[in-house]
Design a protein that fits this description.
This protein is an alpha+beta fold. Helix content is about 30%, strand content about 20%. The protein has three helices and three strands; from the N terminus they run αββααβ. Strands 1-2-3 form a three-stranded mixed β-sheet.
């Protein structure tokens, strides 16, 4: 299973998002730290979920990082997170 699919599944199960987009941006980081042949190292997540209501940006990032701890330890080098609660203007 591709890392994009794993990230999507885990975030969907954990946060029941209204919207979620997971982009593999590994191709944009060729030659940079953490890149490896075949990609699956650099990701960007756009997520909107009720789970983020009343949470700070740092709390939201920590929530996501906790869910994806295994992937971050196993080869995901970079994870850009755009997390919002409904109505905050964050879209996926």
């Amino acid at each position: 299973m591709r890392t994009t699919d794993i990230i999507t599944r885990k975030l969907t199960e954990a946060f029941a998002p209204q919207s979620l987009t997971v982009e593999d941006e590994s191709h944009r980081h060729e030659g940079h730290a953490g890149h490896r042949p075949g990609g699956q190292t650099h990701f960007r997540v756009y997520i909107v979920s009720d789970a983020f209501k009343g949470k700070t940006r740092i709390q939201r990032h920590r929530m996501i990082n906790e869910i994806l701890a295994g992937e971050l330890a196993a080869g995901v080098h970079a994870l850009a997170i755009h997390a919002a609660a409904p109505g905050e203007g964050g879209t996926a």
